Amino acid sequence: MKIECYECGTARKGLEILCSKCGSPFRIYPDFRFSDNPKENFPYLHREISLGECTTPLLKKDQMAFKLDYFQPTYSYKDRGSKTLISFLAERKREVGPILSEDSSGNAGASISAYGSAAGFKVNVFVPDTARGPKLDLIRAYGANVTTVPGSREDVRNAAMSDASFYVGHSVFPEFRDGIRTLAYELFKQYDGKLPRNLYIPTSAGTLLIGVYEGFRHLLESDEITAIPNLVACQPDLMSPIKSALSGKDYVPSGRKSLADALVTERSPLLQPLVRILRDHGSTITVTEEEIVDARTKLAHSGIFTEYSSAVAYAASLKHNAQGGKMVILTGNGLKNAF
Q: What is the pTM of this model?
C-alpha cells in the first residue's frame, strides 16, 4: 500500500499525521486488487481489535434505501475507523505509548475510547464545552478522561494535539479514514454490484465521505464496478463550509449552533481533497433546522430512530430532484440526542 501526502505526494515515513513539507494530511492508497476476503484489503493489520462488528442493515422503503450504519458497538459508523486505527496502533504500542488523545464532538470520542480501552490504552478526549448528554456520558462510560474546551471545533482539535499523550485525531489520522473503506465494500456486496446512483452522506470534516469514496475507487480500479456513485455531502445551513468552497467563496460562520451536533467542523484539514472528490463525483446540499427536525420525525414515525446529524442526509435526499436510486447513510443512533 502507498501512503502519501494528498497535496504534494510526499511519502509518509512513520506515524506522522501531517506532511512535513506542506502540512497536508496523508492518504492511504490500496495499490492491489480488491479481495472478497476483508483482511486482504487491509494488509497492514495483523491483529484486529474487535468489539463484535457486523454487516450493518440495508433497509429499502419505497424508492429510498437506508444504510443503518449505527448498528455498531458504540452506535455510530465511527467504529469502522476506530477499529482500523486502534488495531494499527496496538501493534506499535511501544512507539505510541500508553495514552492516546482525541478531539471529538461526541461519536468519535466514544468510539476511540471504547476501542482504545479494549486495546489497553488510556484515552484522553477533548470535547467542545457545549458537549453534553448521552454522547458525553458514553465517552466517560468507556473510561476516558474528558476535557471540555471553549471556542470552536478547531480550538478543541488544537487542545488535543497539544496534549502530552499520542494524538490520534480521527479527522487527520489516515488509518481511521482508511477503515471507512469497509462501508463501500459492504454496499457493493449488499447491492450485488448494482449500486444506487445517489448516496447521501452526513458530512463534517469529511472522513466518512472520503473513506467511502476511496472504497468505491478501489472497486472501480479493480473492475468490480463501472462507475462511482454520485456522492452528496449533506450539511446544515448553519454549518456549510463545503458549499462555500465548491462555489469558490470564503466561508462566513453563521455564529449559530445546529441541532446536528456531529456536523460542526468549519475548517476541515480535509477540505481540499473533499472538494476535489465532489467536483468529480458529487455535489453538496444544505438543509434548514426545520427540515432536519421534520426529517428526523419522519424517520422515527417509520420506525427508524437516528440522531439529528443523520437526519440531515435524509432531509437533503427529500429535496434533491435526482435521477436514479437514492440511498441515505444513517450514521448515529437516535438515543444519542434528546427527542
A: 0.95
